[in-house]
Design goal:
The chain has 130 residues and is mostly helical. It has 4 helices and no strands.
Length: 130
């Protein structure tokens, strides 16, 4: 029976020698893909659009510009500035997660009221808007 243990040990050694290279190469081919998948899962999502601080600064700047126009300013300039302000409000709402209807409403009193509501909602979310 002393020889039976030696035969079993030799069979195990033979199996390890035959299987080890196959397992080693299989791992060499599969591990990089596995590591890449793990890194992709851990990767943080990239923000869409400019940083919220930049949007808030632009909102304040355009609001000051809009409020500071003298009475003789052409209507086209006022309308363009108001549209730029609305677009900045829309960007801020998208980034903070506030619902708005600025794109749906026509120019007029309803849109002005929606602007005020959106500004107040953004203030409640902690964004420093005028």
């Amino acid at each position: 029976m002393a020889g039976a243990g030696g035969v079993l040990a030799n069979l195990i050694l033979f199996a390890v020698v035959c299987i080890a290279p196959t397992v080693l190469f299989w791992c060499a081919l599969r591990v990089p893909k596995l590591v890449r998948r793990l890194l992709e899962r851990r990767a943080k999502p990239q923000p869409q659009g400019p940083p919220i601080e930049r949007v808030a600064a632009d909102l304040r700047r355009v609001h000051r510009l809009l409020a500071g126009y003298p009475s003789g300013t052409p209507a086209a300039r006022r309308l363009g500035t108001r549209q730029a302000y609305d677009e900045l409000l829309t960007q801020a709402c998208r980034q903070v997660g506030v619902s708005h209807r600025l794109a749906e409403l026509p120019e007029g009193m309803d849109r002005e009221i929606e602007r005020l509501r959106v500004e107040e909602s953004l203030r409640e979310c902690g964004l420093a808007v005028p």
